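Same chain as my last thread, 544 residues:
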Amino acid sequence: MATLKVLKIQIDNFYFTAFFGLFGATVLASLWSLFGRLNIEFHIFLLVLNGLLLYFLWSDCKQLYTRFLHQIKNLNWPVQVLFAGFSIVLLAQSATAPFIVDNESYYIQTIKWLNEYGLVKGIANLHPFLAVSSGWHVTQAAFNFSFLYDRFNDLNGLCLWLLLGFAFDKYNVDLNKETKVLNFIGILPLLALFLFQFVSAPSPDLPIYCCTFLIVYIFFEKENYGYPQVFIITFVLAVFACYLKPTAVALVLFPFYILCTQFKTVKSVLLRMTVLGGLVLLLFISKNTIVSGYPFFPVVGFQFMSVDYAMPIPIAQFYFEQTKLVAFNCTSDQFASFSPVDRFYRWITLSGLHGFFNALAVLLLFIVPVIFGFFRKRKAIGVVYCIMTVQLVLLFFTSPQYRFFINFILVFILLFVVYYLKNKRILMALQFCSLFLVLIMLSNKIPLQSLSANPNFQTNRVFSIENLIYPHSNSSLGLSFERIQKGNLLYFSPHANSLFWEIGNASLPATNKYELAYFEQYFGYVPQMRTQDLADGFYAKKIK
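reply #2:
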């Protein structure tokens, strides 16, 4: 609510208000993490601040929650059953073991460092992935209550619940109208089986998908909200997504399009948004400079200042190259020998989900103009199509992993369904089927060898009775750890049964001994503490 007041946005929707609240909390927590840890002292500050805001905004908060309860009561009974069912399975999914590889390499560790020390100088020298330090991990660190319990890295569950609640509300409105054309976001629960895989780990991909759905929805309904409001909403959500992960940069084109086409209408709010965008950009630059030494990591060709804790350029370049090799599933020698055509062919013919979604993205580039060329809102769909094309091109030359561009694929899947399948009863039945499939996935182990080469992620994670009381730990791996001394650095590392980048839920400071040995042998660097205090960070010591 306070975020809306500051931005002067008139929104009476509980779910939208909550998303803007997450944005405001992320900015506040990011500012705090520059100077201190996100721990009990931050929550004391937050408690006092929320108490003051509740006092001054009591009337607005009361109206918001009254409308929210009214919305829930007004849902048709099948929609209420669906919402209740998805809410329950979301809680169950949040309590299960995480099912994302990156969670074991840097999600857990990034959040741990934020909880115990805030942003730490040169932390990327300990493990290159820690240089990513997503803004979403700042948000998660602010709301995992690590001082009370160590198993609450499940903010993604709340994020998806808010999106599903918004979707059911819009679907209910469409059910009660005579129109045959439904809003695409109302059938979003059809994607639940895919989206639920991002719930039990703090992956920034899920909130980016949520921001994308909301941006496209507002963009389609811009005539009903007014252009100044639409510009502010799309701008804030796009900036939020970019702060969580720069691969979402194409979303900024939505508010840019509105600015270019409706400049006279939105110019009154332009200064306000410029200040906000500048603040978020400053936070992004500060965060990256602290953890890696580079303001726009993984870009290492530019620095505002030279710092002693900067990540060595060869290691930073190695990290960036590895992300591309993963996307093409090849070695560096193979990648260097590929022509542009070879790279493209390999990209769309990869095995498993990677090749499927890569090929689907290319197919969409050809069929969207044909399929949607004669439909209502075709101009708006055309803008979404162009922005999707820009994102695909940008990512193809940087890090073309399907999870970075699947947000637009999902949008067009929903648009296709809603335009060609207009029977409301069938759509309702499909949403119940979606809930049933999630329940099956949650209660039965299913082999996934064809989707993942990682031996630790070849079966899905299931809910156990024990999780009713005790959520699963933040790591899905039962790794054991050893303490190793390297110069002035005493660190924890998984034993011999770990993969190259894996750290898991090791105590701080932690990295992987195989990774350190590799960087020492091939690049001649080892991480060392800058002082005797971990809070002062790390630097890369040249040994040869």
